[in-house]
Design goal:
Helix content of chain A: 25-40%
Largest sheet of chain A: 8 strands, mixed
Structural class of chain A: alpha/beta
Largest interface: A-B, 35 and 35 residues
Strand order of the largest sheet of chain A: 3-6-2-1-9-11-12-10
Oligomer: homotetramer
Shape of chain A: globular
Distance between the termini of chain A: 29 Å
Low-confidence stretches of chain A: none
Mean pLDDT of chain A: 91
């Protein structure tokens, strides 16, 4: 069980969450809660830091930011006491969540949790400050944005919990974005691999890092609403006996842009030179495609995040002469459209259906990328929503 | 050096304070800073606690409230780094400020401060979270409102500092309240005893508790402005060689009310019965006066804080029959006017001057209370300001 | 279209909402937005008012509180401009929402809205500050908590909109509280009368006042999620051609307590005397039940809100002698359980099913109250959840 | 009387300010109060605007920002009511402060103030929202940062007040910065011209714009502390009968940097070309100095704000060839030191004393600029404090 972000936005929400924890305890469950900071407190603290200084030593930043979770955990404990539930708050250090020393983005090395086990045995509800730990050098560390989900999964694993519930502002994972496809349906379950592919393809929640941690440690996740409290979506291992939907979801992402370097001589080492230069500037390249022409030259296209487009273009232009390229074309107006589904592995014709559907809508495919359970096409940005609607219908995701 | 309250109200003020610390360090001083929470953060946290719960376990309250100082200390360190000053933040626990276990109002038992000494030796500026410590049971504790002044004094004592500077929103201690006496003058120095009498007589700053700690450990205080940075008022031991002003200040206080129990038989034990009953209801009685009449009965008058008047009246009425009193009179419309000065001890006629001055203004004195260096009169509330102005003039406090 | 409460909690949410408005406009819709204050701003302003003063003149309170909506509306306009959508903000006064002069809880008298119509004709999106208007005496007025829903409905009516969308933190109206009945189902549609009965029976959202306004002016409401944006629940007039579910929802409420006055002589005027006395103390009595005994005396039971129980008990005790009652019994440990459904009107046996279901669970019914489409029973508080679960199953509300 | 910035930082300060207003009213004064937003609210609102949008239409910005003063004025009115003082709040529009249409930085065109006069005649205290007005096109306008001082001065003028009191966090205007010169003294009075020269030379308070408005309309200002309430500094017209101090203050400023363009041919139009190019980039040039060498070339030095140094250097380098310059030298490590005093006009030898003082401290003068009552020297930045201390002593400003 984890509560964070919107779910503890303010005092009223803390009381609502305490009420829910109390109901769960009274039904005979042992509960551990990881809480994140209230509302936008983490943002506010980061803003304060930029206001007071251009220098942000990691040790002080983590001391600053973890104050948010300290407040939330103490307040939730008080609210639980008010409802007659014994509880005690634990900082990351008190919960013995040991991390490396990389401040502001620390990795969990080990969760001891002896004090949590003692509290549980005594019938108490431990409330743990999310996204925080203590480094091997005994300093306070912060796990990064969204780190409370990771704390929750790590605690669930360390304490041998049946499952980890992630309470959030959405009621689960949908077959597509209901803003685009009103008939999109909430999924009852999805396996880890599909969820990770959906994250990679643009699905904003849950945070990829916590899903990875959960898959690696085989912790079942239940993503659900902290507003309606209705059951949400289970993320778990694939059940081989269960029949798989061929396609589980259609996801689009308009956060990337395309760069094409044209007329490059088709020689070994050219691409390596180019992508090394981009990596040196810390630019994350996502999709890459290369077409060799009859004339012995080649065009290399790739996608980068919008905010890196200008830098990436500069890098390419700087290499233009050296690699003998003809031209560099930047194209910010693209979007990706992806279908994800574990059933793709065993069903032929999925890609054909996708391409036919887009063709019949008059949508041109500019790049293609695949994994064993995902198929992604780059299209014009202004056609992406039309593509998503058509694919959702073509794969009959709305039915039940 | 201590910074607190108003002086770190927001990000801009933190940068201003860091600039001032940097100037001080660059002039060759070793500096330790105790910071309190920013602006009204402590109030906000207390309000949050009342919003989420009626139950406020001390351990969780202290975890909650000390988050404010954690933020301020981390931010001040960042701002110092930005100015090229090496600094590190220390929680009360990291600074080894050991307290008793009385949560929300803990007392300092010992200040070890080894890590602070190491930091100072390395040329760093330690920034310590104010008003906090670690209990003998290893829990986080809070020293109470205004506790940052106490932290500063305790650190100054433990580290053998020359003096403890208290930066605040006022520029020092005045001969009277300038809202009442515009010609009131800032005092260059005042001794501990006078300052404590002024605190007791209604002077709102500095906090009495920190002055007591300073007197007990012979730490010189310098109360000064964190806005204009001009030199303020030194609070220190009396210098026997220096000529004393007879009177240092005129202070008034309208926070008390008067109760009179009339016609009580003049028998032993009556007063004891009455004041024990008041003490059992936690009512702080300040001044007490008893006049025996020729008829063998007596009137007992005493003052209590305004907010306790109703309860105190109830207590007296409840005892009316038992102690044989004639009547109970509550009078909320009084104020005290006090003159304070170490020179009173060796100068005759001070009280005469005070009484004559009030008389010549037509102000009736209703009760009188004295200490060796203070003389307090109870007068009608609406005449208190007139009394203060007249006394300030009579004792020539405006001159220099 | 209306946005309020949680949905504009912070800057990020304002951008998300602007994005959604922009999508809606680009699909060819004319949109008017009513926004409430961000997050807990209204609470914060009320708290500030209690901090500065015990006196709260209505004119100044409304000036203070409406500042929250002013901020939200200006910010949402900026965010819309950023997305290329022309928009302009309008205060209640600029939108010509005329109210009476009852400050802090004003009623809408008339919505002129000429400037909104001009803005719409010019292709702009008007963003209106929620819960505010201008009184007939030209002062700023506030419509009360939850007033933004009322503003939205009033604008929808005045401007002849097809429907009024209420975006909130829940995704619609459920057949029961999913915290109690995990298999509770979101309703696709519900008629005004059922919704009003559900509000009266304890369903917390939407606000009863706005539903009443909508029913009176025949404005269709669509209650939906501002987090997942999936279609929610339509609240509209009953469609006589459509087959009705017999029961639409099971609702419980534990906010009331019971008082019983026993042994009252069975004479005219006794009850009138009692309930007049309660009304004079502004106590809202909900359910009332009276049983005449063979002995010619009667017991009168009724429910009042928990917070009024002590006062109500005092009132009854004060009348004990006058009305010749035997005893007054206060019982705080009750809850109501209600079933609501338009189909009840035409189906026999609904009440029998309810009573049998409760009986078979061993739950005793203490009081009963009915309307044409609602049936409410008072039960022991600790059995209410069990009752809700059993009734939800008995009326097969989980199926689809 | 005006209260702003720090002085109404929070609820407690609003009560303190209300208490002070009440005292002033009870002494028989008619009072009008202009309040600015509480604490850093204006900053917070601006930050919100940058968070939600890159587009900031002036009309919406002013609607947003003026919400801060609305809140403060309503709260102050409530606090005054609590103390038995009748008061009413007025927005800029209700106070009939008419401005031009330049949003976010509007200029006052006219103050009608009929409603304020009526309120005063009825014995009420009008509380006016600072820094706001209504444009000639009936939109809400904001006067810019620090605009509450301007509102206060404009109201004092329009209502024929004796004086305008500016309550702030400093206790007046000092002969120098006490952080640098601890023996700096608060000035009892200073004339408008001196104050304006001090503002121009780097004195941070009061805001230059309000001093200019006060001089133009002959409104006496009293700058004083809202913490100690002691009398501060009067800013008024020069009294020809009063003996003038030769020098009133020593001010330094390290916010500027120096640029030197060397070896420019000594031809007409060269400087014009250079400074037009700088003006076209909106760079504010402060001091300018030109030395013609024997060789017929000249060096042009000038100062610009630090933040414009890089742009200004670029502009000069871009013109290097065109104007035939030899080199462009940027020097960020300078500071200005200024002496200001109305007595300079009639006393010879002031400049000689300044130069001798700097020389005897071994401080080199790099540029000189004068007005009739100010003398400014550019020196190395790290010597500026030494220069200020020496000049303060040389002109005997510490004496009284």
């Amino acid at each position: 069980m984890k509560f964070g972000g919107t779910s503890v936005a303010d005092a009223e929400r803390i009381r609502v969450v305490a009420d829910y924890v109390a109901r769960t305890v009274r039904r005979g469950n042992q509960v551990v809660v990881a809480v994140s900071a209230m509302g936008k407190e983490t943002d506010d603290l980061l803003h304060l830091a930029t206001q007071v200084s251009n220098t942000h030593p990691g040790r002080e930043m983590d001391m600053l930011i973890t104050a948010g979770e300290r407040k939330a955990m103490a307040l939730l404990c008080m609210a639980l006491h008010d409802l007659g539930i014994d509880s005690a708050s634990f900082t990351g250090s008190q919960a013995e969540i040991i991390t490396d020393t990389e401040h502001t983005n620390a990795k969990i090395l080990e969760v001891r949790g002896d004090r949590l086990r003692q509290a549980l045995e005594a019938g108490w509800v431990p409330v743990v400050g999310g996204a925080q730990g203590v480094s091997t050098e005994r300093d306070v560390t912060f796990l990064g944005r969204g780190g409370t989900d990771t704390t929750a999964v790590a605690l669930a694993h360390a304490l041998g919990a049946d499952a980890c519930e992630i309470y959030t502002d959405v009621s689960g994972v949908f077959t597509s974005d209901p803003r685009i496809v009103p008939e999109a349906r909430r999924l009852k379950r999805i396996n880890f691999e599909e969820m990770l592919e959906m994250c990679a393809a643009g699905c904003p929640k849950p945070a990829m890092r916590s899903v990875e941690y959960a898959r690696n440690h085989r912790v079942r996740l239940h993503v659900r609403s902290a507003f309606t409290w209705e059951p949400g979506t289970w993320i778990e291992e694939e059940d081989p006996d269960m029949e798989q939907a061929i396609i589980s979801a259609v996801v689009s992402d308009s956060s990337e842009a395309k760069l094409t370097v044209t007329g490059v001589p088709d020689r070994p080492g050219i691409a390596a030179r180019l992508f090394r230069a981009l990596a040196d500037r810390s630019i994350n390249v996502d999709m890459i495609e290369q077409n060799v022409s009859l004339a012995g030259t080649t065009d290399i296209s790739f996608t980068v995040p919008h905010e890196d487009l200008a830098t990436a273009e500069q890098v390419c232009l700087g290499l233009e002469t050296e690699i003998g390229a003809h031209d560099v074309l930047a194209d910010p107006d693209i979007a990706t459209v992806s279908i994800v589904g574990a059933g793709m592995k065993t069903h032929a014709g999925v890609s054909a259906t996708m391409f036919e559907t887009l063709a019949s809508e008059g949508i041109n495919i500019e790049m293609i990328s695949t994994s064993s359970i995902r198929l992604t096409c780059v299209v014009r940005a202004d056609l992406a929503e039309k593509a998503v609607v058509a694919l959702h219908r073509a794969f009959k995701l709305e039915g039940e």
